[in-house]
Design brief:
Helices cover 18% and strands 51% of the residues. With 137 residues, it is α+β, with helices and mostly antiparallel strands. The chain has one domain.
């Protein structure tokens, strides 16, 4: 519990400091289905994913600014430069979970930690899940 509170405090402090710094847009995508990011379910729609400062915190925000979440990503490197950015989801039945983000014209990406929901679905025998790629624009 103490570790969980520490993570929340770190994210809040970094997010507060980020308001003074420049957010760098990473990708924009139209996600045609409801999805889970972290502990939050977000509706289908147009989203921007930004990296906050030089730290691996990602801000995911809808274009109408009504849906958003901050999350810690693990930096990843693709074997080659990606021609287009994309978001990667694992789908279990009607539940889609955001698991990766890749920038366009870059080899840089982020993987998101496995959510409690995804662990629960796998434990119930939902299998590895279907992988869905949503191309960024």
């Amino acid at each position: 519990m103490r570790k969980h509170l520490l993570h929340i405090s770190m994210i809040a402090a970094l997010a507060a400091g980020a308001s003074y710094a420049e957010d760098r847009p990473v990708i924009q995508a139209n996600i045609p289905f409801e999805f889970v990011a972290g502990t939050k379910t977000l509706p289908a729609g147009e989203y921007a994913v930004k990296r906050v400062n030089s730290i691996p915190i990602l801000a995911i925000e809808s274009s109408n600014h009504k849906s958003n979440i901050l999350g810690i990503g693990t930096p990843e490197m693709a074997a080659q430069v990606q021609p287009q950015g994309r978001l990667v989801f694992h789908r279990y039945g009607n539940t889609s979970i955001l698991v990766e983000m890749w920038g366009s014209r870059s080899a840089d990406g982020f993987s998101l930690p496995q959510t409690a929901l995804e662990r629960k679905l796998i434990a119930k025998g939902a299998g590895p899940g279907e992988t869905i790629n949503v191309t960024a624009h």
